[in-house]
Amino acid sequence: MSRLSLVPTPIGNLEDITRRALDVLRRADVVAAEDTRRSRVLLDHYGIATPLERLDAHTMEARAAALLERHEHVAYVTDAGTPGVSDPGAELLRRAVAMGVAVEALPGPTAFVPALVLSCLPVARFTFEGFLPRKGADRRRRLASIAESTATTVLYEAPQRLAGTLQDLASACGEEREASVSRELTKRFETTVRGTLVALAQRYGAERARGEIVVVVGPAEPPDPADEHRRSVEALAGAGVRGSTLRTALEALGVPRNDAYAASLRYPEDAAD
């Protein structure tokens, strides 16, 4: 049976690669690469002579199946980081699984993990958004979701769109929401800038960012349970729910028993609307 190995490659510093990854690249029949020019630099650096073939988003449909059928062991690498995370590796993996090809994903570098840690924002819960849609309703929905999230959010962005995305995030989340921008991770000019979304938007509106960029947005404040309970009372009472029925409904929604009882007294069953 043929085999596909998804091989993570350094996001900057060429020394950030595992010995297992190098061994797979040497032993594979072919290395399929999103960008053969960038991958050639890595292979040459480590003296790896495995044949290299281009396989990117534009050639995936035409070449992927034939490549997997023709070779017993295909190693796949993307421009940088772990294949399958915001890159064509995800599509190649789906095709391989559909064809019955054995697949493995090696652990290794990815940009969003160091950026998340360096942000100094809460990391116990986080969501990874990849690249946001560039415009339209999909973008607005994703921004609204980030604004409401009580988990930290991580996303990728291109340099030329960074300032606009930071401004959109500030508009959706509030100007004072904490965030960070990391660029050129593991490289010579690596930087992480922390601050409010509006401050970051102003900075990168005046200063053109370069390199690969990770934006980390802090979580929204969790809602006050007392406010949620109050809204539940008002909504149910406004709909005509009264007395013991109101009490039972509120308890089912998680309102503390004493508060539910007090609400049922404020809105007795025989109260006039």
Short description:
The protein is 42% helix and 18% strand.
CATH topology call of the largest domain: Methyltransferase, Cobalt-precorrin-4 Transmethylase, Domain 2
The secondary-structure element order is EHEHEHEHEHEHEHEEHEHHH
Task: Give the mean pLDDT.
Answer: 92
The secondary structure category is alpha/beta
Oligomeric state of the chains in view: single chain
What is the annotated CATH architecture of the largest domain?
2-Layer Sandwich
**Weakly predicted, low-confidence segments:** none
End-to-end separation: 73 Å
Number of domains: 3
| CATH-assigned homologous superfamily of the largest domain | Tetrapyrrole methylase, C-terminal domain
Helical stretch tally? 11
What does the radius of gyration come to?
26 Å
Number of strands: 10
Level-1 CATH class name of the largest domain: Alpha Beta
Helix content: 40-55%
Residues in β-strands, percent: 15-25%
Record the strand order, biggest sheet.
Answer: 3-2-4-1-5
Largest sheet: 5 strands, parallel
Shape: elongated
